[in-house]
Amino acid sequence: MKNFLWFLLLLPLFSMAQDSIRVDISNPHATIYTHLYFLQSDSYEPKKAAKTILGLSEEKAIEKAIKIKQVLDGKGLYVDVNKIPTNPNYKDTVGYSSYFKYVLFPQRMPQIYVEKVGENWYYSSETVAKIEGLYKEVFPWYVQKLQNIIPVSGHKKILGVEVWQFVALLVMIVLGYLIFLIVKRIAFFILKKIQHQITKNTNFEVNKVLKKLAHPISLLVAVAFVDKIFPSLQFGLSTNTWVFLGLNIVETVFWIYVFLKLVQVVMKIYAEFTERTHGRLDDQLVPILHSFFTGVVIVVGLFRLLVLFGVDTTTMLAGATIGGLAFALASQDTVKNLIGTIMIFLDKPFHIEDWIEAGEVVGTVEKVGFRSTQVRAADTSVYQIPNSKLSELVINNKGLRLFRRYNTNLGLRYDTPPELIEAFVKGLREIIIVHPETRSDSYNVEFTGFGDSALLIMVNVYFKSLAWGVEQSSKHRLHITIVKLAKELGVDFAFPSTTVTIEQFPEKQGISLKYNTNKERTDAVIANVISDFNKGN
Asked: Reduced to 3 states, what is the DSSP secondary structure of residue 124?
């Protein structure tokens, strides 16, 4: 009687224990927990796990349920049930907003997910249909044959690992190393062929980068080989989880390295192309694009690493978007400058080493950066002009001139005879014609008027070279030759002065200069000056 009373007392506890492990498929968390719980070694009831599969016979459902868990374990995908939603009406807001659907591993295994059918949640029909193919990918045909040929001694354990697993791991490492060596040579050969097809030449600098690029590519192939083979060694979920996490991290780092080197190769090829173009603004675009693409690769790579460590990048991006609005408001000038940079490279109002006038700034363009343009003035000082302002200014690009115009006035004394004025003008014209840096088909040398203190001779010439330094050197030679001509002809240059004339003064003569206006002499002087100038050329 006493034992019967104890039985009645403990009966509710047994009922509660049974209820705590009953089949529950009312929400994503319950369905996935039911599936995994009843396939554990200490609670193995595959018939209950098969309740998470809809539309198949019990035998087929059991087979599918077991294979789903084996695939997850084989790829080292640890299911954290605490992160699975318990909402019966859960909707995946990332890409699946119109379906009641939950994907366990969206990045690494998107084919396996549960969906709501009626009032309950089951593994999707797509998952059930694809599980056979996934199983064969994780556990290829040779796995079962390998298990059959392993002798009994091969199943002995050392440090919790069977002997055959140690041997298979060693073979896998050796094969992976051989694949690395072979693929490295093949990858370098193919990359070199592609580079030669694009550039039509051999660049030793590019070849060095290609060798560095072939190294991580071959490592990626070796890692992919290990990723494919390792599940066949059947080390178990805990080991597979850490191994595949490590492999994915290594693979991501290698991919980042590959794309960084690829950016470097592409930029070197583009730099060779820009060197053959006329303008140098394209040359300045190379480091800017290199920095931009490098930043993109690093940011995308870091996001990929965060995903591997379980960070929800969607939430992170949403937070970054909200913070980005505040940041954008605080950095409007930076955004304006970036847009200005884009407009400068699209419109190309100037090139590197062009002499420009932009507002109050006059100088040579040295560098165009993300934020500002560097202009060096004639006194060697440097101006940093924000690109947002520069894109709005009226730019006078003197570097785009066909020729450099030079205009000046020469003042002769008022008492210079007309004959010498004519000879002087004639000599100036002949100097311009023979000058190697001036246009002989476009110039003006004329007696244009009467100044306050001088007779004005206008000299208007065009220098061929657009370089500022060459222009100044050409002016120097022109000026020296003009001074020599004036000296030989006996022509004096005037300067601001006041002349007081005394008409009658005892025993004093006037101070008027004596000019030699003999035409033969003036022609000979012009010929000698031109001859001396030609000898200098």
From this structure: coil
What angle (nearest 5°) sits at the alpha carbon of residue 464, between those of residues 463 and 468? Answer: 70
Over residues 27-82, the pLDDT tens digits come to 988 888 888 888 888 888 888 888 888 888 888 988 888 888 888 887 778 788 88
Which residues of 65-184 form beta strands (DSSP E)?
101-105, 109-117, 120-123, 157-158, 161-162
* Reduced 3-state DSSP string for 386-411: EHHHHCCCCEEEHHHCCCEEEEEEEE
327 phi/psi in degrees, rounded to 5: -65, -40
C-alpha dist (Å) from residue 166 to 142, 161, 169, 172: 18, 7, 5, 10
How many beta carbons lie within 10 A of that of residue 177, not counting itself?
Answer: 11
Predicted TM-score (pTM) of this structure? 0.49
Distant-in-sequence, close-in-space partners of 460: CB < 8 Å, separation ≥ 6 = 405, 406, 407, 443, 444, 445
The strand pairing partners of 382, in sequence order, are 376
Strands (E), 247-391: 355-358, 361-368, 372-376, 382-386
Give me the long-range contacts of 329-335 (CB less than 8 A, separation at least 24).
Answer: 333/386, 333/388, 334/371
